[in-house]
Amino acid sequence: MAHSSEEDTDISESEIDEHGDKTFEELKKGSSELKVAEEKYTCPYCPGKRKRDYQYKELLQHASGIGNANSKKRRAREKANHLGLAKFLEEEVQNQASSSKQVNNGDAPIAGGDHDDKFVWPWTGIVVNIPTLHKDGRYVGESGSKLRDELRARGFNPKRVHPLWNFRGHSGTAVVEFNKDWMGWNNALAFEKEYELNQHGKQHWQAKDTEKSGLYAWVARADDYNSPGIIGEHLRKIGDVKTVSEMQAEEARKRDKLVSNLTNVLEYKKKSLLEIESRFNETSISFNKLAEEKDKLHQAYNEEIKKIQLSARDHFQKIFNDHAKLKQQLESEKTELEVRVHELEKREAKNENERKKLQEDVEKNAVKNNSLQHAAIVQQKADENVMKLAEEQKKQKEDLHKRILQLQNQLEAKQALELEIEQLKGKLKVMEHVADKEEIQQVEAIQKDLREKEESLEGVESLNQTLIVTERMSNEELQEARKELINGLKDMSNRGYLGVKRMGELDSSVFQEACKRKYPEDIAEDKAAEICSLWDEYLRDPTWHPFKVVPVHGEHKEVIDVADEKLRDLKKEWGDDVYDAVTTALKEINEYNPSGRYIITELWNNRESRKATLQEGVSYILNKWKDYKGKRG
Known about the structure:
Elements: H1 16-28, H2 56-67, H3 76-99, E1 102-103, E2 108-109, E3 118-121, E4 124-128, E5 132-135, E6 138-141, H4 144-153, E7 160-166, E8 169-177, H5 182-197, H6 202-206, E9 216-219, H7 222-225, H8 230-238, E10 240-243, H9 244-369, H10 372-433, H11 437-490, E11 498-503, H12 508-518, H13 521-540, E12 547-552, E13 555-560, H14 565-574, H15 576-592, E14 600-605, E15 610-611, H16 614-632
Antiparallel strand pairs: 1-2, 3-10, 4-8, 4-9, 5-6, 7-8, 11-14, 12-13, 14-15
Helix pairs in contact: 1-3, 2-3, 9-10, 12-13, 14-15
C-alpha cells in the first residue's frame, strides 16, 4: 500500500473496526502485494521493519499481535491496518490455499495427483526393468543403496530402495520408500512425473508394441497394491491404500485435536499463573512487613552495641594495663628463678669437683695404706654423700619448675577470669538499657540458634564440597581404569566368563537362522546379510524412536512400544527370535548411547548376562596372569 498523507493522521479508537474493514476490502482488490516468493510473504504496513519476509503463519501471527495489542505505543491506524491484514490472511489466503490443495499447515502445496485416486501409503514408488545377470544359477543385480543414491542426486530424496528377490534371485524390480509427510508425497509425484515425461512411466511399461530399455518407474496405486506377484505381495506387507483426501482429513483431525489440547493446556497454565501471582503478592506483603520489623530491631541492636563498645573499651584498656604489670612481675620472678637455677648448677659442678677430689684422695690413701677394705669403706661413704647431694639438687630444680608453671597458670586463669567478668558486665549493661527484657531474651536466643545453624551449615557444606571433589576424582580414575581394562580385553578371547560386548550391535546369527527357514540355502546367507544391514540402518536412524513412557513403581520409564509399526511387521514376518534381537539392540542403544546411536564397547559378564563391575574385571585379569605364570613355571 503506497504511503500517503492519510497515513500521517491517526484515527480514534472507535474507528479501528471500520478502518480495519476498509483495509480488508483494499487487500481483496489487490492494492497491496503480499507474496514476495513461493512461500514468503511481506507486511505492507511495516516498511521500515528489519524483518520483511514471513512464512504464512508468521505473518498471520504478526498481524494479529499488533492488531489486538493493548499498548498505547501503537497508533490506532496501525492497529486497524494490521487487523484488516489478519482478517484477509484468515479468510482469503487460507481459502486460496485450500482450493489449491495446500497441505503441511499451509506451507507446502501438493505437486499434483487426483485426490480420489488411492495411493499406497507410506508413499512408495515402483522401479522395473532393472538390469540383472545370471551368475552361478541365480540372478544378481545392483544393490538398492546405489539406486537410492542416484535418486537422491536427482532431487527425489527417497528414504531407501528395496530390491525384490524371489527364488530365482534378483527379480529386476524394486520399491522406493519415500517419507510419510507431504514433502515425501511431493518427491514421489516428482519422481513419477520425470519418468513419465521421459516416456518411461507406467503406461509406457505396460504398452505391448514398444521395445523396453532402461528403467521404468511410477508411484504405487491401488491396482499395484492388489496385483498378484512379488510387487503386490510386498506392497501389501509394508503399507495400505488411501486417497489424498483421506490423508488430508486425517491430518486436519490431528491438527484440530492438537490445537484443542494446546488450548486447554494454555487455559490451565493461565489459571495456575494467576494463583501463583496471588500467592506471590500475599507473600511479598508479608515479607515486606517482616523486613521492616527486622530493620528496626537491627537498628536498635546496633545502637546498643555501639554504647556497649564505647563503655567496654575503657574497661578492656584497664585490663590490658593490669595484664602488662602482671607480665612484668612474672618476668621478674622468672629471672630470679633462672639466677637460682644457675647458682644450683654451679653448686652441682662444685660438688662434682669435690667428689672427684675425694675420689682421688681415697685412691691415694688406698695406695698409701695398701688396705683395700679401708678404701672400699671410704669410697662407699663418699658415693652416698654424692648421691644425697645430687638428689637434693634435682628436687630443688623440680620445685623451681613447678613454681614457674604454677605462676603461669595463675596468670592465665586470672586473665581469663577478668575477661569473663568484663563480658558479663557488658551483657548486664545491655540488659539494663533495654526496656522489655523478655523480648531481648527471645532475640538473643534466636540469634544464638541462627549462628549455631549457620556454623553447622558451613561445616556441612564444606564437608560436602570436599566429598564431591573426592568422589569426582575417584570416578574419573575409575572410568579411566575401566577404559584401559576394556581396551586390554578387546584383544582377548570372549570365551571366558568376562569379556567385552558391543552394545547396540545386532546378532547376525539370528537373521541367518531365520533366513535358512524361509529361503533356499544358496541365497539364505546373502538375504540374511541384507536384512540385517537394513535393520542396522533402522537402528542408527535418530528419527525412529519406538519407545513410550509408562509409570513403573511410581517412576516414569521408557519401554519398547509394541504397537510400533516396524516392530509389529518385523515380528509378524520373521518371528520372535529376530524381534528379540532387534529390541535388545534398541534397549542397549537407548541406555548407553541414545543421542549418538553408534556402537560402544562395555565390560560384560557373559555368565550372568549383565554389565561387569571394575572389581570383577581386575580379578579376572589377575587370575589370567596367575594361570599364565603357573604354566610358565
